[in-house]
Specification:
single chain, mainly alpha, 2% strand, 9 helices, extended, two-stranded antiparallel ribbon
Amino acid sequence: MTSEPQVQDDTSIDEAAAKEKAAGRRKFRLLGIVIVSAVLLNIGAFILFPPFDPSAPSGPCAYPVCFINGNLEFPPPTVVWKADPSTSLPSGSLSVGFDVSITNTLVTMWIVEALILLVAILATRRMKDIPHGIQNLVEWAFEMLRDFAISNGGAAAVRHVPIFAAFFLLILFCNWSGLVPPVGKVDFLRAPTSDVNVTIGLALVAFGYFELQGFRGNGLGYLSKFFPVYEFRHGVGAGLLAMFVGLVELMLEFVKPVTLAMRLFGNIYGGEVALAVMTALTLAVVPVAIFSLEVMLNFVQALIFSTLTLMFTLVAIESHHEEGELGEEGVEAVEDVAVARHGAAPSAAA
């Protein structure tokens, strides 16, 4: 005969299995509702707001070229305000000009900065020992960034956590701003990091910061990283080789802001182009997947920029002259060991 506890166990197992199946059906039902709603929303948007060619808004829109052009944002930003409308920049791929104007990417960046400052003010206005609400959220985010910076750079990174967190948060929300529907769909709003002028500006600020920290930590000795003249003490050949390596290091130092700017701009602008093309050519299901991928990639790009800035700073504050002295001590130690061995060999033979 089957005992009563065993029957109860079988019943509870069956009930758990039934609940799991019901939960699975609800998930599939919810996923189906989301997909159908997205498709209907896409169709409704197509009917109410049909695509048009920006170059000829009143003309016919042929698929797929016109659909793609209607969603693309080309690299030059739109000028929202200009100090002197009568002036124009020189044309040509290598031309350089000066013009006082405000672009849509700059306006969007100001809005992002204002929102970040507003959140910071609200979080620190009435701080408590036991944080709640927005203070708890901000402290948690800052602690996560601080722990990440220290785990990568050690104790020396503590001093540079504020600049690391500032770069990360600013770039992250500038990246994400391009995924908000009004941004990029109206002339006066566009994702700031999709403009190469903005990314170059951010990279130059980062470059100035870690170069300043290098001189601040080592004084004029920071230049020994690029001009290691002390190596001539080991001979002309060693000195010339060290100077060649230092000049290569100097050239690579000026490549750092270029790589920071171009990597950020290329990934953000390329992602917006991919999202625009997929939105124009497919139904809403595929763009939603691309959108989710862009959210993650934008996060990664902000983390890469801020982390590289932190690492470049930590490398700059290292004392390179001390490294050379340590290398000299190592060479002397090896020579002493070799002399001791040569001296011990004749004694053993005797």
